[in-house]
Task: inverse folding
């Protein structure tokens, strides 16, 4: 378990986390990204940007 950086709630982490993995906080619903593994660091995942074929 880790702490949500937005609401402070508990976020369940898989047994084998991978940097860049996306998770969702069960308490506030925000999408989180694993930013680092040592120490485990979570941050808000960036919003998906539109790629208009450019």
Result:
């Amino acid at each position: 378990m880790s702490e949500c950086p937005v609401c402070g709630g508990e976020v369940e982490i898989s047994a084998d986390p991978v940097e860049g993995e996306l998770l969702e906080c069960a308490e506030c619903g925000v999408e989180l990204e694993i930013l680092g593994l040592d120490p485990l660091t979570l941050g808000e995942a960036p919003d998906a940007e539109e790629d208009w074929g450019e």
About this structure: Residues 33 and 43 are 5 Å apart (CA to CA).
